[in-house]
Amino acid sequence: MGISGASSTFETLLVTRDNGIVTVTMNRPSKKNAANATMWAELLTIFREVGTNEQDRAMVLTGTGEAFCSGADLGGGKSDGAPDPRANQSRLASMRHLSDVCNALARIPQPTIAKVRGVAVGAGCNMALMCDLIVASDNARFSEIFAKRGLSLDFGGSWVLPRRVGLHRAKELAFFADIIGAAEAERFGLVNRVVADAQLDAFVQDWATRLAAGPPIALAQTKRLLNNSANVTLEEALDDEGAAQAVNFGTKDTVEAMTAFIEKREPRFTGR
């Protein structure tokens, strides 16, 4: 299904692949994995790479050390190559690049999991929310910190946040910009699961393994159908489901699933 070991050399990311699971780790621990220009460029590259790599069956996005991602590195300046957010000529270009990264993450057809330890704030919070699933350590902390920096939401926050928690909860989180703990994030519906920090790696590994073993074509179509659900009528959704199911019935994976059921064994999906 896939190969094991390290893959793709980056300056700010660690990327490994193991049996269909690609793990992307943001790696600027001294900055709590704040994203500078180099990291944004590298995230764009790896998200696009994963989205077109049939060997990658599930992606885990996480951060090294004691943080997921503390957002954009607004203090990076020229020393690390980050655009100066105060320079008029760079503002719009920088935000368009940020939008490209967000779109690339959202367009990954494979299931994605955010594994969150420590802080996930600002763009880092919304990066987690853009993943299909979020599993948080009990020490995780989340914030739409933008208002406290004199900024409005970015990295898709205005789109994904109300879809996660509803409009009024989204306004509460965005207007007050409070930092909330893992338990409150779970109560708000920001995350799928909260687990003890010592169990986080094993829990995410289990979910990622199960996803990587699933039927790639069917899962990708289910993801697309669910992501589009708020934008279509019931009639349109039913039409889309019918078209997706027709594709599924023409795959070898569906034949394999039926055969495995009859033979009382686990199916072996190949994405064909």
Key features of this structure:
Lyase 2-enoyl-coa Hydratase, Chain  A, domain 2, globular, 46% helix, seven-stranded mixed beta sheet
Task: Summarize the structure in words.
The chain has ten helices and ten strands. Helix 3 (about 125-130) crosses helix 4 and helix 4 (about 155-165) packs across helix 5. It folds into two domains: about 5-210, Alpha-Beta Complex (2-enoyl-CoA Hydratase, Chain A, domain 1); about 215-260, Lyase 2-enoyl-coa Hydratase, Chain  A, domain 2, CATH 1.10.12. The two termini are about 10 Å apart. Residues about 75-85 have low confidence and may be disordered. About 45% of the residues lie in helices and about 15% in strands. Strands 1-2-3-4-5-7-10 form a seven-stranded mixed sheet, with helices on both faces. Strand 1 and strand 2 (about 15-20) form a beta hairpin. With about 270 residues, the protein is of the alpha/beta class.
Please give a quick description of this structure.
It is built from ten helices and ten strands. The chain folds into two domains: 5-212, 2-enoyl-CoA Hydratase, Chain A, domain 1 (Alpha-Beta Complex); 216-262, Lyase 2-enoyl-coa Hydratase, Chain  A, domain 2 (Orthogonal Bundle). The strands form two sheets. It has a seven-stranded mixed sheet with strand order 1-2-3-4-5-7-10, with helices on both faces. A three-stranded mixed sheet has the order 6-8-9.
Rg calculated over all Cα atoms: 19 Å
Task: Please mark out the parts with pLDDT under 50 across 5 or more consecutive residues, or reply none.
Answer: 77-87
- The top-level CATH class of the largest domain is Alpha Beta
**CATH homology superfamily of the largest domain:** 2-enoyl-CoA Hydratase, Chain A, domain 1
Question: Can you give the mean pLDDT?
Answer: 92
Shape: globular
Q: Total helix count?
A: 10
